[in-house]
Amino acid sequence: MDRNAKIYVAGHKGLVGSAIVRNLKKRGYKNIITRTHGELDLKNQKAVEEFWREEEPEYVYLAAAKVGGILANDQYPADFIYENLMIQNNVIKAAHDFNAKKLLFLGSTCIYPKNAPQPIKEEYLLSGFLEPTNEAYAIAKIAGLEMCKFFKRQYGDNFISCMPTNLYGPYDNFDLKSSHVLPALIRKFHEAKEEGKPSVEVWGTGTPLREFLHVDDMADACIFLMENYNGEEHVNIGTGEEVSIKQLAETVKEIIGYKGQLLFNSDKPDGTPRKLTDITKLHELGWKHSINLKEGIEDSYKWFKENY
Ligand code: GFB
Description:
By secondary structure, the protein is α/β, with parallel strands linked by helices. The chain has helices at residues 15-26, 45-55, 70-75, 77-97, 135-155, 181-195, 215-228, 245-256, 280-285, 293-307, and strands spanning 7-10, 32-33, 59-62, 102-106, 159-164, 166-168, 199-203, 209-210, 212-214, 235-237, 243-244, 261-265. It contains 10 helices and 12 strands. Guanosine-5'-diphosphate-beta-L-fucopyranose binds at residues 69-70, 73, 108, 110, 133-134, 137, 166, 179-181, 184, 202-204, 208, 210, 245, 268-271.
């Protein structure tokens, strides 16, 4: 890809979008377009069209989305489905209308059926019932990737999709009501240590298994796909390694140096029991993650202490 190509990163203030911008700059891409939420409401079709008419981006990373952890997904399903559908419909349609050269849509592994065989291959999409706590978000994301597929099929648009596993890293959301598990645990253990609390609450039973990918690896994989992949089917992005929530909590506890107890609160939902990506396709394309979980958590904790 031409280093002077005009690239729009939608959602550049978020966890993934900010990492994509950092990685693009590191690789020497010079012409990166961004808009804050205040400058451009992606839910507004007219505003999106005006923005496109003004800028005509050639390449698009669609990393703007309403995202959240298990509780936020469960409590605000209407917001999750509506906002995500609006954002992706507007951006994908504008990219089509203005002949963007390529677009990458970002999904999430919660799109796969709750009881999908593990590890989850790309082809298991739409083969069973979804996990109820994040059904609204999953339906929106499934619509987005299917839309990319059908625009490619009908019009020949080069719109591709990827499915990242659970992500974490700098610019994560550390709000305990809406965050994902890793930033929540970092904050809880840090505060418990500072305040000398005897225990930390961990939601659920601790038995669910999750896979975690540092967002700098995620951004690298996104740019790799943008530069090297043109297929119709989405591509899983993950490490292929999983840990239980209990193991994760113990690792975060150790890194932070907290000496108290873990208290599992099974009144809070566990969510899907397991969602491990099959990353054969990504490896065959030639990309592999490089940040292991322990060093990734250390990096995230450093960012939290310096910025939060
Ligand atoms: O990261 P998380 O919110 O999302 O929760 P999901 C993962 C697991 O960690 C669940 C447990 O079993 C939680 O019960 N957990 C333990 C906690 N302590 C905490 C805590 O303090 N905060 C949080 N948030 N969880 C989301 C989906 O699912 O994953 C989204 O809802 C999206 O749609 C995202 O796909 C990647 O992995 O369960």
